[in-house]
Predict the 3D structure of the following.
Amino acid sequence: MLRVGLTGGIGSGKSTVSALLAQHGAVVIDYDLLAREVVEPGTPALAQIVERFGERMLTEDGRLDRPALGAVVFADTAARRDLEAITHAAILARAEEIERAAATDAIVVHDNPLLVEMGGHERVDVVVVVDVPVAVQVARLVQDRGMSEQDAQARIAAQATREERAGVADVVVDNSGPRAELAVIVGDVWDELVRRSREA
């Protein structure tokens, strides 16, 4: 099994790269999905979030009110760290379960926007970083997600820097070009991962 860590800043196009790798045959573990799964109603993590941040973090039907929680944690570093302490352990445990269920010769991609922040780069064989300039991230977040420029900058600032991600990267995917170009780049990355898998 080859364990691959895939990461990139918000708006970098990491999810597109992840989808392309899945098309090539990778087993993708999507940490954004796991982050939702571990805070479903009735989970220990949701109970801990309510204990720390209050009932106001729940919607009327008892689900996590993500915008309300986001407004708190992206404005307060200590609050964000408290939230991460609750959720990261649960996410990692679930990711390990999925990985154990994969075939022994699989290429397993841990698609994790917080790979560096969670120390996930130390638990994989290869780190792939999707990279674009910050100005491109901001433009995409404003255009594609309807964020204000200020909100976009705050989200970017809450994540690892480009330099921090580049510092742990084995492979850097430059996604500042067109989508068709990205598909070709990811095809080359897949060939490299297959080669490494055979050598492992």
